[in-house]
Amino acid sequence: MQTRRRCLAAALLAATGAPAPAQDAVTVYGVVDVAMVQEAGGSAGKLTKLSSGVGAGSRIGIRGSEDLGGGTSAIFLMESGFQADTGAMGQGGLLFGRQIYVGLQGRLGTVTVGRQYTPHYMTTVMADPFGSGYVGDSKNMLAVTGNSFSRMDNTVKYVSPTRHGVVLELVAAAGETAADRESGRQLGMALDYTSGPLRLRFGYHDRNNDTAALRNTENARNAIVAAVYDFGILKAHASYGRNRGLNSSVWRNNDNPYGYADAPLASTDSKDALLGLTVPFGQHALMASWIHKDDRGARNQDASQFALGYRYALSKRTELHAAWSRIDNRNGASYTVGSAIESGTGDRATSVGIRHSF
């Protein structure tokens, strides 16, 4: 298996025109996830479909490192998303739309540059019993769909060494707008603490508006604190978030999925709360979560999501999964039940699928 992976890595690198590094420094990995999904509650009616990446985005990636001596290594990662139901590329057709970066790792920490996940998003993933996937995905409600999305282009990222259970993450990305260095600029950070069964994490993201005239007055700011405690028989999950500014919290589906007479407007001032459980037993695991969006704006467009999920491990690398979720929108809110990579079309969804990792 390892020999086949090395050969595949060399072939993929050759196809991209990159020089092949030492074979023992390269790993090929991937996920293929497909599920039957039924969505309901939107103005278009009930929709049944076969979808890719419901539980986790389907992908293929290459990662590796080179020992430079003195405790320092060069590292890289290239990860491409795809649609397993059609064969199309994911992330809008980007070759390495999920992640791509290169950097250095040593005693003082790790610095990487490229397209990378935001610390704010990774804080949300940590808190979510569904791992930001399945139809119970926290992205249906939480702010990562808006300001920080899940990834940043043009990113410089620093991750500190672990000291007494604490890790610091810092990110910065330029908007790269001609004649205006401030518009679209992004900054973020996270502070992560682990002690035995307890993990705490704080994430923050700040993004200037892409429009130069609004860059200093309409920037979006998102903060989240999350906690997970492993009791052995179950894991308890919780998070609380605060979101302010234009695009700080937007709809996943912007096509007016409920057919409102007036096009829905996303909140520019909101609070998020999440409570959840993961209950593993043998080859099985149950997941449950409740998420509430408290809109502090004049429209008071609150919403709540309740989700249940089940996973059955056929092996260490293959699982069957099923999930159900429902959103209660109020006062014209337009949140939809999506999955790991889809935005959804209504306020209810059910999925049954299979995932294989390699």
Structure description:
GO terms for molecular function: porin activity. With 358 residues, the protein is mainly beta. The chain has a single domain, classed as Porin (Beta Barrel). The chain is 6% helix and 49% strand. It has a 16-stranded antiparallel β-barrel. Strand 14 and strand 15 (303-313) form a beta hairpin. It starts with a helix and ends with a strand.
Helical residue percent band = under 10%
Main beta-sheet strand count, sense and barrel state: 16 strands, antiparallel, barrel
CATH class descriptor: Mainly Beta
Counted beta strands: 17
Tell me the CATH architecture.
Beta Barrel
Helix-strand sequence:
HEEEEEEHEEEEEEEEEEE
CATH superfamily: Porin
Please give a handful of descriptors for the protein shown.
16-stranded antiparallel beta barrel; globular; Porin; mainly beta; 358 residues
Compose a concise summary of this entry.
The chain is mostly beta strands.
Question: Helices, strands, pairings?
Answer:
Elements: H1 2-15, E1 26-40, E2 47-52, E3 59-69, E4 72-81, E5 99-106, E6 109-117, H2 119-127, E7 151-159, E8 166-173, E9 186-195, E10 198-207, E11 220-230, E12 235-244, E13 269-281, E14 284-295, E15 303-313, E16 318-329, E17 348-357
Antiparallel strand pairs: 1-2, 1-3, 1-17, 3-4, 4-5, 5-6, 6-7, 7-8, 8-9, 9-10, 10-11, 11-12, 12-13, 13-14, 14-15, 15-16, 16-17
